Amino acid sequence: MMELNAESAIKAGGWDPRYAVTLAAAVQDDIAAALVDTNGDEADIDLDEYVRGPDGEWQEAGSGSADDQGTHWSWRMVSIWGRTAPGRTVEIEYLGVSHSTVALETGWWLFIAPSTDDYEALPQRIQR
Length: 128
Description:
Largest sheet: 4 strands, antiparallel
Number of domains: 1
Strand order of the largest sheet: 1-2-3-4
Oligomer: single chain
Radius of gyration: 14 Å
Helix content: under 10%
Strand content: over 45%
């Protein structure tokens, strides 16, 4: 079973590894997502969603444009992402449960969870 990391996210998303850079990735069971800077200058950032295929490999399930921060709902997963100080813990609330993630050395962070049928049920960053 392949782990989703910076390199495998670019490969699964079909991006050109000479230019694309994975800014952040998150995995939960058989769903995953990555923020990919498609040309290496942070001018075009995509949120790519992946599902684990029957062979254990990650397969791209969707892709769309992303900004420096945002939330997204799909029938598979919800996601929230942003930038902050490197190493900072980011607190998130989703469906009444608190979660946390840590910003990478670049300051980017990403959280995902399985979605519900309610497209308005999105994770929110808890500001402290």
